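URGENT: need a sanity check before tomorrow's submission.

F., can you look over the YibE/F family protein record below? I want to be sure the sequence and structure line up before it goes out.
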Amino acid sequence: MHSHSHTHSHGSSSSHGSLEFVTKIIVGIIGFSILTFLFILATNTSVLVGLLGGFVDDSEVIERTYHIGVVKTIQQPVEEIVDNSFPQDIPVEITLENASTDNSEIIAMVNQADRAFVRPDGEILLHPGDDVVVLQIGDGDYVNFFVADHARIQSAIFAIIIFFLVAAVFAGYQGISSFIGLIVSILILVLYIVPQILGGGNPMFVSLIGSLGIVVPSMYFAHGFSKRTTIALVSTLAVIVLTVILAWIFVYMTGLQGLGSEEVIYIDSFSTEPINLKGLLLGGIIIGTLGVLDDITTAQTAVVDELSKANKRLTMKELYIRASSVGKEHISSLINTLVLAYAGAAFPIFILLVANQGEPLWVILNREFIIEELVRTIVGSTTLILTVPITTLLAATIYAPKKEIS
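Structure tokens as predicted:
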């Protein structure tokens, strides 16, 4: 009887090990494929522009096409801009890297009043060898080229590759799987949440459903399929519901309308369907708390698990008290991190507070965009604090000795 039980246990352990090995192989293949794809995008301009779209159909007679090019030479402007004068264009010779025109060597114009390329003192912020985005207007015999922006996307892709390699080298399998989970989260944002909101869906409801779709795969990808991850996931889902309630209370209590940024007003103006801007604000708050929740719930679950393994006689109450002690230390550092993250994103607000002398301080503080950032910070920090007791209680209940629970 004992021999049979031992064999069954050994077989179960062996199958679990085989499944884990196969999972790591699959994750490795997916990770290598992602790395290869990113490298191709970063080094091959034609593939990048062709895959992500270079032609823009704006339903007008004039066609617009975007290219990436390299600056060869720059002609200095003949004269500086003076008051009330019409700013002249600066000719720039450029080699198009994704040339769909007959000649890859073109002359593009830079507006002298464009502060992205020309300083107020006349210094040109372009140099030979710089990558730029070129806008082609027209086709055939009537073509004009303009320098639209600095080309940054391929450098950004190289930064992503470095991030991926650092995660793979120092975190191994978990680093690669976390990166895959991150890509899944981005795909859900781009392919589900954004189209649903632009199509007229309720932003808060769409963000809530999307959050569930983000949390489940990202947590299992990052931490593996285990009891720990499942407990952390259930805790995260519970806190997300709490976040929705708190966000709704604070947004309605402060009378926010979701008009705290120019981007939101711009989105509302070009969207074909009316967008619930207040719901959009609520949805943004919900999604913004997901990353921090993952950190807290997984860490607290792991603490309770390890305490239980170290001393199997610890009661549920003892597990809760000891794990909460660790959680409080974690919270104090994370609140500071969260507040500074929001403060960094809203740094212009602090400049406004210091520089604005034309209005009373309370009038400035009463503005919607400031109250929005305040509400985001309060909701995020409050849910962060409440995450520790919720997760710790659930984990302590599950990991406590079964005799005590019964």
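My own read: The two ends are 28 Å apart (CA to CA). DSSP finds 13 helices and six strands in the chain. If you see anything odd, call me.
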